[in-house]
Design goal:
With 342 residues, the protein is mostly beta strands. 13% of the residues lie in helices and 38% in strands. The radius of gyration is 20 Å and the shape is globular. The two termini are 32 Å apart.
Length: 342
């Protein structure tokens, strides 16, 4: 009988940028492939884990859709200047043109100074000519939708939506595992390459409309659904008391990102029995094989983000995009909270 898998923490990979630092906590991108930090699988990379243990790590749904490609990544953006203006593409175009994933991303603001800003979409409808003019010149700020972020804010960045950040802020990004993005404008002389021609037909030129937020209070535990997309779902958990997680319902890995405080994942039986600690700034992955565990706060005021891949009906990836657009605004009620128990 194979040894049972256990919750994994990974060694982070950091890169300096003209605007600050980018740190991948969990990613399987080729040039970044995070390594397991502890336990009997320490030293193995994320891609090696998935290639060896397949659906035992990711779950049946993920394996059917993505094979041995781990589908979600978590990174931290420590912004100390101004990022370039980017746009991402959807899965269909990414697959057809670049043979890779597209990118839907959630930005969660961990901290932000008073002068920090997030730019998301346009403040009015643009024409194609205007897009070229503002991105080639210095006037792009005049047409960007500017947001003053505060800690706890979250923004779902859908394909086609331009985005950037400036000032002093820390962003946790949970997204599809993709490094496909297009730079439209940059204030940094180091960013010499723009991708305006490639991205021209990808950019949503309509005025940005903010989606409504979903809040859910689950007894003592305040859980808040931040994103529910075909690629991943994210829930914010304010962990005040132990939670019993019935992971079996998901048929998916679970990723927990600790933004504040600390937590312990307690597994009561089997080979993986034990306590697995999660500290502020760390991410832990509970493999799909772990069906049942407790999430216990080790400090007061513990704040976690939980990311999971929802069960998906199997469809042709080239046709599924149309259907998925109907799910983007779906009602989040009844999605997550049924698996929490005191």
């Amino acid at each position: 009988m194979d040894k049972k898998l256990y919750p994994f923490k990974f060694i982070s990979t950091r890169e300096d940028r003209p605007w600050g630092t980018e740190a991948w906590a969990v990613a399987d991108l080729g040039f970044v492939d995070n390594m397991v930090d502890e336990g009997w699988l320490a030293g193995n990379t994320l891609s090696e884990l998935v290639e060896t243990y397949l659906e035992r790590v990711v779950g049946e749904t993920s394996f059917e859709f993505y094979g041995t490609q781990f589908p979600v990544m978590v990174k931290f953006l420590d912004v100390r200047g101004r990022t370039s203006l980017h746009v991402n593409t959807d899965d269909t175009i990414a697959q057809q043109r670049y043979d890779t994933f597209g990118k839907t991303a959630l930005w969660y603001v961990v901290s932000a100074s008073d002068d920090a800003r997030i730019y998301l979409g346009w403040n009015r409808d643009l024409t194609g000519e205007e897009l070229f003019a503002v991105c080639s010149g210095e006037s792009v700020d005049s047409v960007l939708n500017e947001i003053k972020p505060k800690a706890g804010d979250s923004f779902l960045i859908t394909p086609g939506t331009v985005h950037a950040a400036r000032g002093r802020l820390v962003i946790a990004e949970i997204s599809e595992c993709s490094n496909l993005w297009f730079r439209l404008h940059s204030p940094n002389p180091e960013d010499t390459e723009l991708h305006l021609e490639e991205a021209f037909d990808l950019v949503d030129l309509k005025k940005y409309e903010a989606p409504e937020e979903h809040h859910h209070h689950d007894g003592e535990h305040i859980t808040r659904h931040l994103a529910e997309t075909p690629q991943f779902s994210v829930t914010e958990i304010r962990l005040t008391d132990p939670l019993h997680i019935y992971a079996e319902k998901f048929d998916s890995f679970l990723l927990y990102t600790c933004l504040r405080g600390g937590a312990v994942i307690e597994i009561k039986d089997g080979d993986a029995k034990g306590n697995y600690r999660l500290k502020e700034g760390e991410v832990i992955m509970v493999p799909a094989e772990v069906k049942d565990f407790f999430l216990i706060p080790s400090e007061r005021d513990t704040l976690l983000l939980e990311a999971v891949m929802d069960h998906r009906e199997e469809t042709d990836p080239y046709l599924e995009e149309e259907e998925h657009h109907h799910h983007d605004g779906c009602d989040c009620e009844g999605h997550h909270h049924h698996h929490y128990d005191n």
